[in-house]
Design brief:
Elements lengths: L5 H23 L3 H4 L16 H20 L5 H24 L7 H18 L2 H19 L4 H15 L1 H11 L23 E2 H6 L1 E3 L19 H8 L9 E9 L6 E8 H21 L30 E11 L2 E9 L10 E3 L2 E3 L10 H4 L2 H14 L14 H8 L7 E10 L6 E9 L13 E7 L2 H8 L6 H12 L1 H9 L2
Parallel strand pairs: 2-4, 5-10
Antiparallel strand pairs: 1-9, 3-4, 5-6, 5-8, 6-7, 6-11, 9-10
Length: 506
């Protein structure tokens, strides 16, 4: 039945062995080669005859056949198509990286990602014998990492896999932990009721509520035994050196006052690694606890000493709480209303392997070290930048500009569009119970969005979905959607009539 797949599958299996060998030789020694010989592949491979680009070319030949097989089965076709697109994006990103450094040593996380994706592709295609052969390699890779000499490294890697593969369980535990102070128990984020307005507000209202405290100081990083005396950012650089982690200038929360609507948010200076070391580190601590306990989600106060008592979530001096800005984009496509979902790849440091709304990014300036603060201290500008970066592949918007050039305006000119065509509404905000990052939630209404110009990038795959209340509700309830995305979708459902009216207005 799958004769057309098997030859390529055999090539794929043969190619996996040298990939794993090169990825793990450096860290685990040459004995690794003999340990995978029983998977039916050659155990003789050297750095000089290894060709990663050829391996990825084999994988790409695999897409059309897998896709055709899946489309022939209507059950979960849309979801599976999204999964394959995500896998394709991830492996292409790895391939593009290798084109510049073909002899570089890949991290263990890269190796496991590639093996796991390959197994999924084979399973979806129905090539079960080949799937088992790849799975044998995957099991041995996990076993080898589990026997690593550094217990802290081994423990942190295990926590990272929970973050990547089982984030919904971490969310469940986090929501339970903060239940005594959470005023929105039926909503995915932890929040105060005053943080969510009764009606959508124009984005300018939230920008007007921002205040600045330039003297705010950096929070100290917790000394988690999980990282063996290292910071979280240092661990990530060692365990997954190709994960994008740039120590860029960011805006963090200093305080929030609920006396007005919207709340007044006072921000201060920070850098991205400060956030990783004080907030993302807490997600590792939570994942470590969850991985060791079966009584989910009954995590109690004494179980997470580095989080502190639950009421501490609304105090910001002890961590660098950056603000993530997530927006649901709705538009017209061939006469039908649509919204866009983003399948985030395994290569993201934040929220890997989940679905999310798009655009989404961290509140930070476009100019290096906040050199144009008066211009860049704006959630509106952050969303415009993320639109260009995540949806239209404008690579020049990814890095902070040292000269302060306003490339956002140039981006819209390239699209043949104008900022005046876009309406952005603020829907509310809350704290992610896994990372304790603040999440500001918005909706972008762009009636004539040029979807044919959108591009996928290393962060993931874009998928247009029909804009209808039932569909929005379905995705808001899915465990594979990031909590901030689910929260944004839930608020969009709440204001469905208003947003639809804005989309269809003249």
């Amino acid at each position: 039945m799958f004769d057309d797949i098997t030859p390529v599958s055999e090539q794929l299996i043969s190619g996996l062995q040298p990939f794993v060998t090169l990825a793990l030789d450096e860290q685990y020694g040459s004995n690794w080669k003999s340990e995978i010989s029983n998977a039916g592949t050659r155990a003789t491979c050297t750095h000089t005859n290894w060709d990663l680009a050829a391996l990825f070319n084999v994988v790409e030949q695999f897409w059309p056949t897998i896709w055709a097989k899946m489309r022939a089965h209507p059950t979960n076709a849309t979801y599976r198509e999204s999964e394959v697109r995500s896998a394709a994006t991830t492996i292409r990103a790895l391939r593009n990286r290798s084109a510049h450094r073909p002899k570089s040593v890949f991290s263990d996380q890269d190796a496991l990602t590639f093996i796991s994706l390959s197994e999924n592709l084979l399973r979806w295609s129905g090539a079960l014998p080949e799937c088992e052969a790849v799975h044998a390699i995957y099991r041995q890779a996990l076993a080898r990492i589990a026997s690593a000499e550094d217990p802290a490294h081994r423990q942190a890697l295990a926590a990272r896999r929970w973050i990547v593969d089982c984030r919904w369980r971490l969310w469940e535990a986090g929501k339970h932990y903060y239940r005594a102070v959470d005023q929105t128990p039926d909503w995915p984020l932890v929040a105060k009721r005053d943080w969510i307005p009764d009606e959508p507000l124009e984005i300018g209202r939230i920008d007007s509520a921002l205040r600045w405290n330039a003297s705010a100081t950096q929070a100290p990083a917790p000394a988690l035994p999980l990282f063996g005396g290292r910071s979280c950012s240092t661990f990530i650089k060692v365990a997954s050196p190709h994960t994008k982690l740039e120590n860029l200038f960011c805006y963090k929360v200093v305080s929030i006052s609920e006396e007005c609507e919207p709340p007044t948010i006072t921000c201060g200076p920070s850098h991205y690694e400060n956030y990783v070391d004080t907030c993302e580190a807490l997600s590792f601590s939570l994942a470590d606890w969850v991985s060791k306990h079966a009584r989910m989600p009954d995590v109690e106060e004494n179980d997470l000493p580095y989080h502190g008592p639950p009421e501490r979530i609304f105090k910001y001096h002890w961590r660098d709480t950056l603000i993530g800005i997530s927006a649901l984009t709705i538009f017209n496509l061939s006469g039908e209303p649509r919204f866009i979902l983003h399948r985030r790849s395994h290569l993201n440091l934040e929220a890997p392997n989940v679905m999310h709304v798009v655009p989404a990014g961290t509140f930070q300036p476009h100019a290096s070290e906040d050199g144009f603060h008066a211009r860049d201290f704006s959630m509106y500008r952050t969303l415009l930048r993320e639109l260009g970066e995540e949806m239209f592949g404008m690579a020049e918007l990814e890095a902070q500009d040292r000269r302060g050039a306003d490339r956002i305006a140039d981006h819209f000119k390239q699209l043949g569009a104008s900022e005046d065509e876009i309406e952005i509404y603020y829907l509310g905000m809350g704290i992610d119970p896994v990372t304790l990052k603040m999440e500001a939630l918005c909706c972008i209404v762009w009636k004539n969005l040029p979807y044919h110009l959108t591009k996928d990038n290393y962060e993931g795959q874009l998928t247009p979905v029909l804009w209808e209340r039932e569909t929005v509700h379905t995705f808001a309830e899915m465990s594979s959607v990031l909590p901030a995305g689910s929260a944004c979708l839930a608020l969009a459902e709440k204001h469905f009539e208003f947003l639809s009216e804005r989309l269809f207005s003249a």
